[in-house]
Amino acid sequence: MLRSIKKAYEIIKAQDNETSITIHTIRVWCKEGKVKCLNAGTKILVDMESLLDYISMKDK
């Protein structure tokens, strides 16, 4: 499921209202390749499964 960075942040915020994750953090993780994403023009679409796995540290 692909979502914009802003929408991905809103989903995370809805699950954890006191999260320390920011829109900027998600953007940096995408640029560093820590979270799978797709560039669509000027928009970055975040793979939500990858983001949630990264946050929960499933790969670690």
At a glance:
This protein has helices at residues 5-15, 23-32, 48-56, and strands at residues 2-4, 37-40, 43-47. The protein is an alpha+beta fold and 60 residues long.
Secondary-structure blueprint:
Elements lengths: L1 E3 H11 L7 H10 L4 E4 L2 E5 H9 L4
Antiparallel strand pairs: 1-3, 2-3
Can you describe this structure?
A 3-stranded antiparallel sheet has the order 1-3-2. The termini are far apart. The mean pLDDT is 93. It has one domain. It is globular, with a radius of gyration of 11 Å. A hairpin with a 2-residue loop joins β2 and β3 (43-47). It is built from 3 helices and 3 strands; from the N terminus they run βααββα. The chain is of the alpha+beta class.
State mean pLDDT (0 to 100 scale). 93
- Percent in strands: 15-25%
Cα Rg: 11 Å
Please tally the β strands and state the result: 3
What labels would you give this structure?
alpha+beta, 60 residues, three-stranded antiparallel sheet, 3 helices, 50% helix, 3 strands
